[in-house]
Amino acid sequence: MLGLIIPTLEQGLAYGLLAMGVFLTFRVLDFPDLTVEGSFPLGGAVLAILVVSGLNPFLATFLAFVAGALAGVITGILNTKLKIAGLLAGILTMTSLYSINLRVMGRSNIPLLRTKTIISVLEGWGIDSSYVSLVAFIIIVLLIKLLVDYFLFTEIGMSLRATGDNPVMVESLGVNTDVIKILGLSLANGLVALSGALVAQYQGFTDIGMGMGMIIVGLASVIIGEVVIRSRKIPLATLGVITGSIIYRLSISIALQLGFAPTDLKIVTALLVILALGAPSLRKIMIQDEFAEHLLEGGDQHAGIN
Fold it and tell me: What is its main location (predicted)?
């Protein structure tokens, strides 16, 4: 059982930053950003080529975040300055990043098994190899969560939240919503790329196709988290996103244990999203049915008394 829980927690935390980036665009900024499927492998590509070249893995991980942030800036500029629809702007950037990622990597796959990474560095500090990834991801994800929570309560962060809720009102207050959108997309895709860098170090390689389907993974984590922790308060909302990522990974692990083939995981993901999205409606229907049944029982009792 422990052999299932620890890898699930590790993967859930690593992909939790991806979910947090999706949360910032879809929930906070109300922007349908598909750049994610390009910025996730971009983070892994930048990380891989830098650590293979001998750069410090901590610095390489930070630069992966910067690369993802730049990808978000491109999407923001396409949307705000060139007036390209948000969905299409994300698709254009995502498509371009496929070629960019290949250019960065030089080939479709880079192994990292014999390369110094954050995980191998922490092992050298004496942390048990069985728990080193878990410890590293807990520290990184907790730190990022606290920084994001703090940022969203700053003046700029409040402007970001307000832009997602009512951009017209924010503009009337003299705030440049174009700059705020670019900033939000930059931060979100930076987190997504950071997640890609952590996943690459965890799995021991970077692959050009590792971003495929990541937008669904992020959305599933966000939606599941919102069902589990129903709160609009930012600290609880970000905690819910990370929790949703862990639950999603647990569901995938259980599906594999039950005998589902890896090729079936896409439909498993779709079903999870459908259940999470439909949960409020199903709950409402059940409450209405129970209320109707209670009224009928009350009517029958009243008729019996008469």
Answer: membrane
Check: CB of residue 65 under 8 Å from CB of residue 189.
no
Among 11-15, 126-130, 236-240, 253-257, which stretch is predicted with the lowest mean pLDDT? 126-130
Cβ–Cβ < 8 Å for 183, 15 = no
Domain borders along the chain are 2-210
CA–CA–CA angle 206, 250, 199 (5° rounding): 15
Let me know: does 146 contact 138? Beta carbons within 8 Å: no
Q: List, in order, residues 6 or more apart from 4 with CB less than 8 Å away.
A: 253, 257
Helix or strand holding residue 110 (H, E): strand 109-111
Residue 107 is encoded by which pair of tokens? 């080939």
Rounded distance, CA 273 to CA 223, Å? Answer: 7
C-alpha angle 39/40/41, rounded to 5°?
A: 95
* Three-state DSSP state, 206: strand
pLDDT (tens digit per residue) in 62-86: 999 999 999 999 999 999 999 999 9
Which helix (H) or strand (E) segment is 109 a member of?
strand 109-111
Count other C-beta atoms under 10 Å from residue 10's C-beta. 24
Q: Can you tell me the mean pLDDT for 201-225? A: 90
**Residue where the block lists tokens 């949360």:** 23
Token digits for 28? 């906070």
